Amino acid sequence: MSDLNQAWVQRDLNVLWHPCTQMKEHEAIPLIPIKKAQGVYLEDFNGKRYLDAVSSWWVNLLGHCNPEINAAIKQQIDNLEHVILAGFSHAPAIRLAEKLVEISPHNLSRVFYADNGSSGVEVALKMSYHAWHNQGEKQKRTFLTLDNSYHGETLGAMSVSQVALYKNTYKDLLFDVISIPVADTFLQPAEQTYEEFADTILQDIEQTLQNHSHEVCGLIVEPLVQCAGNMRMYKPYFLRKLFELTRKYAIHFIADEVAVGFGRTGTLFACEQADITPDFMCLSKGLTGGYLPLAAVLTSEQIYQYFYADYAADKAFLHSHSYTGNPLACTAALATIEILQQENIIEKNKEKIAYLKKISHAFRKHTIVGDVRQMGMILAIELRSDAVTRKDMLKIYQHALAQNVLLRPLGNVIYFMPPYIITEQQIDKLAQVAYQGIALIQERYNAHTKNLSTT
Question: 293 with 329, same domain?
Answer without folding.
Answer: yes
